[in-house]
Design goal:
This protein is mainly α and 89 residues long. Helix content is 60%, strand content 7%. The chain is built from five helices and two strands. Strand 1 and strand 2 form a beta hairpin.
Amino acid sequence: MRNELATVVKLVERIRKYDDVPNRYKSRLKPRFDSVSGIKYVNLRSLLTVRLLRLSTSPRVVRWVSDWKASILADAVSTYDKVLVRKLL
């Protein structure tokens, strides 16, 4: 059997070693558009990814996360998403 806790620890260790945010993450963290309500929203998986990226102590990653947060708060996302971003980041 696989040890799930060990897998999570390995993931966190890899994230903490990041010197910069990988490009594969940057493209996935953009706000999505809901065609029914007509507004942008932040996917909860994106929020989780950014919270995990905050585990890195690299100044470039920390700066990127704060820039991402500022861009989301400045974007026309729902009020609920703005509150979530403020609370969780």
